[in-house]
Amino acid sequence: MTVDTALPTEPHVMHTYGRLPIALSHGRGCKVWDTQGRQYLDGLGGIAVNTLGHAHPKLVPALQEQIGQLIHSCNYYHVPLQETLAAKLCELSGLTNAFFCSTGLEANEAALKIARKYGHDKGIERPEIIVYEKAFHGRSIATLSATGNVKVQAGFGPLVEGFVRVPMNDLAAVEEVARTNPNVVAVFLETIQGEGGINPARTDYLKSLRRLCDEQDWLLMLDEVQCGIGRTGKWFAHQWAGIQPDVMPLAKGLGSGVPVGAVVAGPKAAKVFGPGNHGTTFGGNPLSMRAGVETLRIMEEDGLLENAARVGGLLRTAIERELEGVEGFVEVRGQGLMLGIELDRPCGELLGQACEKGLLLSVTADRVVRLVPPLILSAEEAAQIVAILCPLIRQFLAGGKA
Ligand SMILES: *Cc1c(COP(=O)(O)O)cnc(C)c1O
């Protein structure tokens, strides 16, 4: 994209992101507008965050009401909305207790602390956690150490120890660790890897992991920060495999844009933390809890799980139809409204090209076009995504310029 000179430079913001030269000013549903008045279709949802799209007519008045009552109180006091949201997450997941924080990495950090303490409580002094190639769990020192991407880790060593890495969907690799490493206390993976290129854990693999974790007395910890909260057409992606984790970090879509993170735990893990073991200043504040409660309520009321499954299915089928037989197209992966289109070559430039054509999306793992739109996406909007995106991909693969 050409640099928009009307855009202000930002000499005081740390240069940590490669940004496109636009700034968004407002949105409605799955449409957003930039400060120059150009309109975009939102295929990215703020990276799987804007569950209800933008300016949702049911969410906005609820949040306005909450802001007028109480934004933050702090965890010296009871926050009744924490129990409301925790109870709802437990009802939806079959787990028993939740801890609230504000971001995905914090939810994962809490999960890692639970796993280590679970080990210490069992008398394992140097607990180790099985993590995965291509995993992404965040950018704190511990979560970047669990992450399987050397680009995320480069420059930040020494890394946190206590991780054993295995490839995805390879049961023998985990069984080998079980045979040889008595210090393992947990298996930690994304049910569908997001940043790693939309790589789903297979259903049979998840079932086998559940069985192995039970046999070994390990915690099964499923990072559903990106794939959870209805995105795949079930509340949580692991529910497609009919299993339950012991620990489940959540964030991204839970507050529909308001920062909310949670770690939800079942009986094996829910009592590992006691008073003084963990905490956060912002976590569970009334505004973020209200955002979570209302997001889940509106999702249920408006049938957004069904919508994600149905419209996601349409989107996937249409993309496959449009790209079938095109040289350089590898496959579409994912489920519901979490889709990755793998190409045979790095395709980062599609980001700017799609933006110029009025479509927001992302490219992960160099070669995978990622679509994680709001769960309110309509069939017509899905068709618009296909109509903009597929010709761009064909042109790109043919070596032409958009
Ligand atoms: C985005 C993401 C994270 C990190 O979340 P932040 O809110 O950016 O800290 C962790 N795990 C997964 C699977 C994610 O997609």
Automatic annotation (TrEMBL):
Keywords: Amino-acid biosynthesis, Aminotransferase, Arginine biosynthesis, Cytoplasm, Pyridoxal phosphate, Transferase. Pyridoxal 5'-phosphate binds at F136, D223, E224, V225, Q226, T281. N(2)-acetyl-L-ornithine binds at R139, T280. Pathway: Amino-acid biosynthesis; L-arginine biosynthesis; N(2)-acetyl-L-ornithine from L-glutamate: step 4/4. Binds 1 pyridoxal phosphate per subunit. GO terms for molecular function: transaminase activity. InterPro entries: AcOrn/SuccOrn_fam (IPR004636), Aminotrans_3 (IPR005814), Aminotrans_3_PPA_site (IPR049704), Class-III_PLP-dep_AT (IPR050103), PyrdxlP-dep_Trfase (IPR015424), PyrdxlP-dep_Trfase_major (IPR015421), PyrdxlP-dep_Trfase_small (IPR015422). It comes from the Bacteria. The keyword Hydrolase does not apply. The modification N6-(pyridoxal phosphate)lysine is found at K252. It is found in: Cytoplasm. Pfam families: Aminotran_3. HAMAP family: ArgD_aminotrans_3 (MF_01107). This is Acetylornithine aminotransferase. The lineage of its organism: Bacteria, Pseudomonadati, Pseudomonadota, Betaproteobacteria, Burkholderiales. The gene is argD.
